[in-house]
Every structure is written in structure tokens, then in C-alpha cells.
Recover the amino acids of this structure.
């Protein structure tokens, strides 16, 4: 677009709200077109082909999801930037609209107006390289079966519950077989391998928001792992950093399950992570392996404040105490997740977050506390810069 103004279609059944936004956008030099209902909006969108459509999803006539769906299915508006501007945050509506192909879901506020300005600048191609990047949170352990995948998924859900305005994607990088898809009950075909194999090397950030499956019960989008070793063998590992970089431009938080791997693929991801959640077991052998892992990470320049150590009693009540583990590792354990006997596996088998119920209060509390610590650690580091990938 070689213009410095945009044609913007505003659809809002509330006249004062519609006019207010129109005046605001005209003051920025843009041209506006106004509609009061979903059907009228569709007619104008197809007839006038605006650059951007901003709509309040509370249409008097048709469901907003159908509206977005019809825009996306019509070649004239399949690519048009489409932004929902809702009266108030409605989680299911947000999910449904984004899943239908809406580019953005904002809630009416002064802040939303600033975000609109940015979106418009981006649509006009004025923003050379969007500076926004989300944060990456990697999950790993020194040994399999420590609960890395379960906790990665469950903590992502808890963080999403606490910070409803954030967009979250969980990426399963465990090779040769990912397990998060299985935990959350996703049986579709989109996964890290076929995304990495895509011919088009420059996947736009919107691609992920529009195509990655959203898992409503878990409140995050998922980039599933390799479904089998055969497919894992085909993963072009050199594409992984670029994919993560794009995900960081598309989501506020990128949770990454690395399992127990410290490989050529995972090491740079760990080094560049904003937060490293290290899941600790309770047996001596695992603690020894963890010590080796930690020493290795320190030697590679990963600094201690970035590490959040969580002790997970995945196998039972016995084993090292928290104090013993801390002493062995020379590391503070932030929180201990109690042994939940069959509860955790039961929840996983039902594809439900453990915090969704069926679990003892104390365990849920510990998982929630761990999520709060993840948020706190990320906020604490806000001021510090970090190297680009
Ligand atoms: N705190 C816990 N209490 C009981 N079972 C747990 C706990 N944490 C994990 N588990 C169970 O341990 C098994 C391994 O967990 P998983 O997340 O797949 O580990 P990893 O990804 O480290 O291999 C799963 O069956 C899970 O349900
Ligand atoms: Mg796992």
C-alpha cells in the first residue's frame, strides 16, 4: 500500500461509539465508512473493499463469528485486516473470533485506540520491522517422566487464567515424539514438522494466529510436536529458531516443552529464553543428572536468575526432601508440587488441566503458585534487555 492513510470500515450498532471512533481515525488522516449492523457491514466490505475493518462484535442481526467467517470465505475480503473492538472482554468470543480468522480482538479503551493506531500503521506497511516480541518460557528436566510436559501445559493454562489479556502458544519440541497434543486432546495434523517443512520460508505472524489450533479448555494455542519418530526424522532443525522467532512476534508468551533434551536444537533456545523452568525429580540419580545439566548451562552463560526450579513429586512420596535437593544442586527451589497419585494421570487421560478439578486443593494451590512465580519472574526481568535470536 503506497498510501499514508487507510480506508477503514467501522461497524458498530451504537451510533455514538461509531462516531467517536470515526472522528478519532479521521483525525489521524484516515477515511472512514460507517455501518450499523453485520449485514450492512458485509455489503460495504465487499462493495468498498476497505483496508481495515473494525467492528463491535455485538451485532443486532448476525453472530460476529459468521460475519468473520463470511469475510474470510470471500476472495475480496479474505485478507482484509479485521479487528474486533468489544465492549468488554469475553473469553469465548475472543477465541471464536480469532479462530474464525479475525486478526485482533481488543476491548474498548484508551489503550485499544493506541493499539489500533499500531495495527493501522502495520497494515499500511509503515512499520518496517514490528519491534514487538513476546517472551519465551522453556521447560526442561534432566530425566524423562519428571512431569515436564504436564507442567508445561498446566502452567500455561494457569498463566492464561491469571492474565486474560495475554495470548499464549505452547510449542512441543520434544523429539522423537511430542506428548502435549495427547495431553490436551488435539488430534489434528498441524505440528512443528509440517510447519517447518512449509515451502514459504517467511510465514507471516498472522499465519500462526489464524492457523494454529486453539484449545479452548486449556486457553492456549498449540504448535504440536512430532507425532512419531519417522516424522521427527524429517524435521529441518535449522528452521526451528526462525519459527520460534515468528511465534514470539505473534504471541505474548511462548511456552516451550523441551523435555530432557540438551541438544544442538535446544541449547540456543535455552540460552535465549526469558525464563527457564527446570523441573526437578526427587531421586538422587536425577539430582545428579540435574547438577550436570545446571553446570553445563552455567558454563554456556545461562545466568541463575533466569532459572525457576520447580520440584515435582511425580513418582511418589519418597525421595529427597526439598532441602536435600537444594543442597545437592546449590539452587533454591521455588515451589514443590506434591505427589498427586493418579490424579495427574487421570486429568491427562481426560485431556483436562489438573486445575480443572478432581484434584486435591493443596495440589491445585501448588500448581497455581508455580504459575504465579512464572509470571513474577517474567515481570521481574521486564526491565532487562535480552539478545535477539
Ligand atoms: N505431581 C505429580 N503427581 C502425580 N503424577 C504426576 C505428577 N507430575 C507428573 N505426573 C505423571 O507423571 C507422568 C509423566 O509426566 P510427563 O509430564 O509426561 O513427564 P515428562 O514430560 O517429564 O516425561 C504422567 O503420567 C503424569 O501424569
Ligand atoms: Mg514429556
Amino acid at each position: 500500500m503506497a498510501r499514508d492513510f487507510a480506508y477503514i470500515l467501522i461497524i458498530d450498532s451504537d451510533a455514538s461509539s461509531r462516531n467517536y471512533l470515526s472522528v478519532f481515525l479521521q483525525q489521524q488522516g484516515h477515511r472512514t465508512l460507517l455501518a450499523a449492523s453485520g449485514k450492512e457491514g458485509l455489503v460495504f466490505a465487499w462493495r468498498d473493499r476497505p483496508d481495515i475493518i473494525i467492528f463491535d462484535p455485538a451485532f443486532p442481526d448476525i453472530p460476529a463469528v459468521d460475519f468473520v467467517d463470511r469475510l474470510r470465505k470471500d476472495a475480496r475480503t479474505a485478507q482484509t485486516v479485521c479487528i474486533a473492538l468489544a465492549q468488554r472482554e469475553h473469553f469465548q468470543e475472543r477465541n471464536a473470533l480469532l479462530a474464525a480468522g479475525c486478526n485482533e480482538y481488543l476491548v474498548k479503551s484508551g489503550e485499544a485506540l493506541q493499539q489500533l493506531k499500531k495495527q493501522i500503521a502495520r497494515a499500511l506497511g509503515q512499520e518496517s520491522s514490528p519491534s514487538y516480541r513476546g517472551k519465551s518460557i522453556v521447560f526442561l528436566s534432566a530425566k524423562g517422566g519428571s512431569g515436564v510436559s504436564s507442567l508445561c501445559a498446566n502452567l500455561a493454562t494457569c498463566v492464561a487464567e491469571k492474565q486474560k489479556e495475554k495470548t499464549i502458544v505452547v510449542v512441543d519440541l520434544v523429539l522423537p515424539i511430542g506428548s502435549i497434543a495427547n495431553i490436551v486432546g488435539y488430534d489434528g495434523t498441524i505440528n512443528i514438522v509440517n510447519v517447518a517443512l512449509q515451502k514459504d520460508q517467511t510465514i507471516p505472524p498472522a499465519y500462526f494466529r489464524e492457523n494454529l489450533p486453539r484449545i479452548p479448555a486449556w486457553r492456549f494455542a498449540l504448535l504440536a510436536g512430532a507425532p512419531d519418530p519417522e516424522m521427527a526424522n524429517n524435521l529441518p532443525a535449522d528452521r526451528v529458531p526462525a519459527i520460534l522467532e515468528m511465534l514470539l512476534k505473534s504471541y505474548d508468551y511462548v511456552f516451550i516443552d523441551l523435555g530432557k533434551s540438551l541438544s544442538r536444537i535446544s541449547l540456543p533456545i535455552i540460552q535465549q529464553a526469558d525464563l527457564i523452568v527446570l523441573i526437578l525429580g526427587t531421586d538422587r540419580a536425577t539430582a545428579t543428572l540435574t547438577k550436570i545439566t545446571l553446570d553445563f548451562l552455567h558454563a554456556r552463560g545461562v545466568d541463575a536468575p533466569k532459572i525457576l526450579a520447580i520440584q515435582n513429586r511425580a513418582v511418589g512420596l519418597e525421595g529427597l526432601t526439598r532441602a536435600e535437593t537444594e543442597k545437592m544442586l546449590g539452587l533454591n527451589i521455588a515451589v514443590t508440587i506434591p505427589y498427586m497419585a493418579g490424579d495427574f494421570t487421570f486429568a491427562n487421560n481426560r485431556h483436562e488441566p489438573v486445575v480443572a478439578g478432581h484434584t486435591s486443593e493443596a495440589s491445585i494451590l501448588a500448581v497455581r503458585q508455580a504459575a504465579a512465580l512464572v509470571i513474577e519472574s517474567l515481570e521481574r526481568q521486564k526491565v532487562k534487555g535480552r539478545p535477539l535470536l
Q: What stands out?
A: The pocket of adenosine-5'-diphosphate (ligand 1) is lined by residues 141, 144-150, 179, 259, 312-314, 337, 339-340, 344-345, 348 (CB under 6 Å). The longest helix spans residues 361-380.
